[in-house]
Amino acid sequence: MYITDPKNEHLEDKNIQSSTTPQILKASDTNEHEETKETVLAKTEETKPQMEKKGSCPPQGTLNKAITNGAILFMIWCVTWSFSGPEVLPDGSLFGLLIIFYGAVIGGKLLEIIRIPSVPQLPPLLGMLLAGFTVRNVPFLSDHVYISNTMSSTLRNTALTIILVQAGLGLDPQALKHLKGVCLRLSMGPCLIEACSTAVVSHLLMNFPWQWGFLLGFVVGAVSPAVVVPSMLHLQEKGYGVEKGIPTLLIAASSLDDIVAITGFNTCLSIVFSSGGVLSNLLSAFRDVLVGVLVGIVLGMFTRYFPSRDQGKLAVKRAFLILSMCVSAVLGSHRIGLHAAGGLCTLVLSFVAGTSWSKEKIRVQKIIGTAWNIFQPLLFGLVGAEVSVTSLKSNAIGICVATLSLALLVRISFTFVLMSFAGFNFKEKIFIALSWMPKATVQAVLGPLALERAKISAPHLEPYSKDVMTIAFLAILITAPNGALIIGILGPKVLTRHDPNKMKVELAGLELH
Length: 513
Fold this sequence. Notes:
Layout: H1 6-54, H2 61-84, H3 93-113, H4 124-137, H5 139-144, H6 149-170, H7 173-179, H8 181-205, H9 210-220, H10 225-237, H11 246-272, H12 278-305, H13 314-336, H14 341-354, H15 361-386, H16 396-418, H17 426-435, H18 441-457, H19 462-494
């Protein structure tokens, strides 16, 4: 019997291991190489069809997206026709509404596509406004586009509601507490001084009564967050002005500025279209304010706790509740005669509810932002469609531009003075003063309201209301693109740049509206 020596056996095992190890390593290297090769081939095979699809017969990419969106818009028209019939045919209200909506969407997209090198992008709302203006003043289109005053008023008030909800949710208590007095000065001072200066200038140049002058002043006195907020966020991402909190200041103050303008406008509107004395009108306005604040606090406290945090789809339920309550408050207040109560109720409700939602408020804001994306084309398209070139007087545009320019000059100068005691240097004060001029959303909502009320209850006041509408249109047309260009070009040149990653500037929950 053959017996192997243990020592030799141990040597043989070592030889076997030493001889097999290179083979194993070689095999593993081969396997890794083959796996790498297979991965590369797989990626190549995945990218190859994609490159082939670019030139394939069914279009891909941007062309496919355009055709798909066109098909969706056409099917919306088909479904609407199935329900309403002749209303979506020419001369019907729904047909006019769809034409305004489609035109405004296309106008906004075209302005997004048009990019000039080294020049900031113009706000899409300008394209929407011009699209509505074109629909109204092109002979063939204007003959077949008709929108009832009731439908137009309801849609504009709904858009106003969404703006107010976004303003209420966008108020950050921590930012307001940190900025304190300078934020209040910036949000209230320029708006009030422009309202007063507009009243004086319109009284002298346009022969406006004083109550109409102040109404016009609060229409044009509001700054537009739709222009200011995106521009400030862009500068903040690059680190411009973040050390002194300039973007934070302008974003937080824009919502408060709108609140002041809308409250003042509603007060002046009730005075203009009321037959009572000034004292009774002021008391009724105070009553509306009190009712709106109280109802807003009650509903806001309700939405803080209902629905509870243990429920599913919490953000969707909260967004639906707050939107439905606010739309009912705004539209319902007009039906019962409390015109100023609905807007204040919306602001207080959304602010009180949002203070307890913490980080979850951002999800609600995104849902409401989606609703705004639908109503924004309608709002600016309808405002553009309200302005008719044939109904304008020969010297109306010149006088309106002069009134707007003088009031704006007073606003810019006063804003510079207000910022002189806030710790900013000369260049920063110039930037803040010029950045505080863009107008868009509030003017689009408030401008047609006086004309709408005049057509219903006081036809003899239509000339004044048409002038208010014209100045609101010109304010958007002139200040929105110029304001966006000034912020985008002047900001990097005059503001100090710091690393945004090292700066602890918080803008939790602030969204565009």
